[in-house]
Amino acid sequence: MTDAAPMSFYDEVGGHEVFERLVHLFYQGVATDPVLTPMYPADDMDGAERRLTMFLAQYWGGPNTYSQERGHPRLRMRHQAFHVNPDARDRWLGHMRDAMDELQLPPLHDATLWDYLQRAAHSLVNTFEPTPASTTPTSTTKEPS
Ligand code: HEM
Question: Which domains does the chain have, with CATH numbers?
Fold first, then answer.
């Protein structure tokens, strides 16, 4: 027993199934969000779900499928194309929090994952400009009645 490798967080928390459920619940929330939805590829939401699941699984010590399929994560670079301001960040985190609340992980696992997600989300903010009007449904100009 002494030479057993320490268990990864990925294994401890429940393996692939847990990350899959987390990300699936998360994207259900994103789908209801008027600021975030327009950023995501409407025709490839399954792909988006898979990419985030694989990334998180790999980060926490699971299989390295993400890197095999996508190469180096370079998350800051990959998010440059999106308008990640504090509002988008807080919405993203809000949907993650809701998803985590549904999962009901043990408190220490919850805290570990949540702490990481918060730090990662803060590090990906790339603008302080307000959300461009063209991506918000409320910008649809209506004829005055
Ligand atoms: C801060 C708010 C965030 C916003 C608004 C945001 C938005 C997006 C969008 C629109 C995509 C493209 C979806 C796709 O086609 O895959 C994406 C991809 C991705 N995001 Fe985020 N994201 C945020 C935070 C995060 C965080 C905190 C992480 C990691 C912990 C993350 C990890 C990823 C990954 C792994 C991908 C797929 C990259 C690829 O391989 O192309 N994102 N994100």
Answer: 10-130 (1.10.490.10)
